[in-house]
Specification:
alpha/beta; Oxidized Rhodanese, domain 1; 5 helices
Length: 107
């Protein structure tokens, strides 16, 4: 299952979901510049992306985002084809009004 969520609903579900895992599918440079706190980097254009998502546990809920929502929508689609439950941040980090962090800490 894959669903686009507006930023407010994405933030609320992410906070309330005990099975949530937050994934940033942008590049390492984008991730270092700015990211949603607690996000794990999994570059959709990087080597090993498809191998990695095939190993993700199916009992988790994956919240994915990118810069504008396009790459994360692609990632969400691919992940949902593997039977994963995925929520995409509609509008990406550009639409996000919650907290962000920068630098390499938190990686």
């Amino acid at each position: 299952m894959y669903q686009d969520l507006p930023p407010e609903e994405f933030a609320q579900r992410l906070q309330e979901d005990p099975q949530a895992e937050l994934i940033d599918v942008r590049t390492e440079l984008e991730y270092a510049q700015e990211r949603i706190p607690g996000a794990r980097l999994l570059d959709i254009s990087g080597p090993g992306f498809f191998d990695y998502i095939q190993k993700l546990p199916k009992d988790r809920h994956y919240y994915v985002y990118c810069r504008s929502g396009a790459r994360s929508a692609q990632a969400a689609f691919f992940m949902s084809q593997l039977g994963l439950t995925v929520f995409n941040l509609f509008g990406g980090i550009l639409a996000w009004s919650g907290p962000v962090e920068s630098g390499v800490a938190g990686r």
